[in-house]
Amino acid sequence: MRHPITLSLCIAGAFILSACEKGIDKEAVDREFAGVNVVDETNLNEVMLTVGDPNEAVNYFQRATQEDPDRIDLMRGLSLSLVRAKRHDEAKRAWAKVVEHKDSGNEDRVQLADALIRSNDWEAAEKVLNAIPPTHETYKRYRLEAMIADGNKDWKKADAFYETAAGLTTQPASVLNNWGYSKLTRGDYAGAERMFHDAIRHDRNLFTAKNNLILARGAQGNYTMPVIPMSQIERAELLHSLGLAAIKRGDIEIGKGLLRDAIETHPQHFEAAARSLSALESTVTRTN
């Protein structure tokens, strides 16, 4: 933030000298200062939305909106900060106020729908999205449309919306993972597996897609580890998930072997896998 402040001081000095030389009145100088302050404030607003504790950002924007309650940029900042802070009930109310503002647009309505979904108000979110003109085509809008279609078990619509959303972003890993999970819940395990592979191809660090891939393979009785990028800890965790998937299918001995592999692979003590194996072995012992 050093450069904007320095620039502000330089501009301020120039205007003061100009006022002395030309006799410009104080109000004119104040108006110029007001323009400089807006530039600095805009930079600060952007910083508050991207770094630090989101609750601190909430406090910042709450103070700012109290001082200037009709500024829609500050209202948006507060709403986005509430979402980041996972204060979803407050966020949906804040976005509703933004939508009521005379300068609000369709993207604000998309944000409201997102906040409604986060607070589990799916029916209201669907109504908000349905009121947005179809010409407003954005990644976020179609991702939300896909999630709602999923909830309604309208698989044809869901697939169409997921495909459109994936084509509207340069970082489709998250939406591909969601699409894969949708196919997983439908029982389309092979289709889900393809989606998770695609998601990992776009983001090799997306562990949820890796774990979901394991679940899709396990559901098909495929207990071999896929060839994907993974750390030693991730490999242990994925072996644990695969072991549980095998046990769920009734392949108890395979599941036990996978759990032992998970414990041996993990660089530290793997409590979750050890607990799962212990519980399984004690259950088998009691049955015998």
Automatic annotation (TrEMBL):
Q: What keyword terms does UniProt attach to this protein?
A: TPR repeat
In its UniProt entry, the species of origin is given as Thalassococcus lentus
Coiled-coil positions are none
Q: What Pfam families does the annotation carry?
A: TPR_19 (PF14559)
PROSITE patterns for this protein: PROKAR_LIPOPROTEIN, TPR
Query: What is this protein identified as?
Result: Tetratricopeptide repeat protein
Looking at the UniProt entry, the stretches that span the membrane are: none
Instruction: State the TPR repeat positions.
Output: 38-71
